Amino acid sequence: MEPLPTLFAPAERVPIDQDSALRQKLAAEPLLQPMLDSFPGPALILNQFRQAVAVNNQLVALLDIPVGELLGLRPGEMLDCIRWREEPWGCGTTVFCRTCGAVRAILNAPDVQDCQILRDVGGKVSTLDLRVWATPITIGGEPLTVIALQEISVHTCSETRNKL
Questions:
Q1: Does 3 map to a domain?
Q2: Residue 156 above 60 pLDDT?
Q3: In a domain, 44, yes or no
Q4: At 49, which CATH number?
Q5: Which residues contact 88 (CB under 8 A, 6 or more apart)?
Q6: Which of 23, 50, 111, 129 is deepest in the core (most CB within 10 A)?
Q7: What angle do CA 112, 118, 120 make, to 5 degrees?
Q8: Contact criterion met (CB below 8 Å) for 131 and 157
Q9: Which residues, at least 6 apart from 103, have a Cβ–Cβ distance to it below 8 Å?
C-alpha cells in the first residue's frame, strides 16, 4: 500500500474500533492506568500512528470530554488545534506541523519540546503553550509513546511565582 500524502508526519491511522487487540494488551497491564493517573498533569499514550490509546484522569478533566471520545484522536485534534483541519489526514500532517514541538517530540522520542497550539474552542481562538515530554515504551510487543503535557504560558508561570 502506498503511503498517504502528507506535508510532515506520516498520515496513516487505524480506526480505533480495529485497535481492539492493542486495547486488550493495555487492559492486561494492571499498573498502566494508575501510572498514567499518577502524573501531575495531563498525560496519554499514543499508538504507532500517534493516536491516543489511553489517557489519564487529568486530561479528561482538563478537556471535559469522555475517555471514549478521546481514544483514536491525535494530540492536536483533542486539544482543538486550528491547524489539523487544514489537511485531510489530521494532526501532524500540515505544513505548520513541521515546527510543532508536540509532533517533533513524538517523532523523536525520547524527547522534550515546547509548542504553541492555536486553539479554536467554540469559535474563540486562543493559544496554549505547552512543554511536551515523549517517551517510547513497548507493551506486548507494541511500540507506544507516553506523552506528558505541562502548560508553560507566561500567565501560568506568573501565577505559580505569586503562590511561592
A1: no
A2: no
A3: yes
A4: 3.30.450.20
A5: none
A6: 50
A7: 135
A8: no
A9: 8, 9, 50, 76, 91, 92, 97
